[in-house]
Design brief:
- There is one protein chain.
- A two-stranded antiparallel sheet has the order 1-2.
- It contains nine helices and two strands; from the N terminus they run βαααααααααβ.
- Helices cover 58% and strands 4% of the residues.
- It has two domains: 68 residues, no CATH class; 110 residues, AhpD-like, CATH 1.20.1290.
- The chain is mainly alpha-helical.
């Protein structure tokens, strides 16, 4: 098995950033030319074949397909519930908590784009999840995401109350919970399979 572990001669980023990072797997991703029709179905979005992460996960195409459809529904299904900006903030807070620098870069960048509040997002990255946030919804979503990420038992009625007091309805609260729960799992999966690489020059 050790013959298949990949070593990369790279300087791994060690700071949270909104820059677009790369990612390299420690195990061999499936080469594009070996993808079968079943693999393409598992990718769901053919553009994901450009990512070594998804070409590694597509070795089990059925599980990747379920994962991708769940991911897409969490972030792109905006028929009610939480705004896209707050969904991305929830994922960014989870990623900041787990230490997944790559995922934090992706979701903080989207949170900035969707909210038009890059300074507030950068404060989360630089100061951590306890850094001051003036917006009650942002504070409640961050706190709920952190609690769920540390361990589900940390999440309790006080987080639901804070989300509701911040003006979120039941569907939005469910979205916040689902986004954080999915992403703290996704972070831990990515952290165990590879490492981020610096932005391309």
């Amino acid at each position: 098995m050790t013959d298949h572990v990949l070593a990369h001669d790279i300087e791994v980023p060690n700071e949270f950033t909104q820059d677009q990072l790369g990612w390299e797997a420690w195990l061999e991703p499936l080469p594009v030319e070996e993808l079968t029709e079943r693999h393409w179905e598992g990718l769901v979005d053919k553009g994901r074949a450009n990512s070594p992460y998804f070409r590694l996960l597509v070795r089990d195409p059925d599980i990747l397909g379920a994962r991708t459809r769940t991911d897409n529904d969490i972030f792109y299904n905006e028929r009610g519930g939480l705004s896209r900006a707050l969904r991305e903030l929830s994922a960014a807070a989870a990623s900041r908590t787990t230490g997944c620098i790559f995922c934090a870069s992706v979701h903080s960048r989207f949170a900035s784009q969707k909210s038009k509040r890059p300074d507030d997002v950068q404060r989360l990255l630089d100061g951590g999840t306890s850094a001051p946030q003036d917006d009650p919804q942002w504070r409640a979503v961050i706190d709920a995401s952190v609690a769920l990420t540390l361990t589900p038992g940390e999440f309790g009625p006080e987080h639901i109350r804070a989300l509701r007091d911040a003006g979120l309805d039941d569907l939005a609260i469910a979205d916040a919970i689902h986004g954080a729960a999915f992403f703290n799992w996704a972070n831990r999966l990515m952290l165990s399979l590879g490492e981020p690489t610096p932005p391309e020059a």
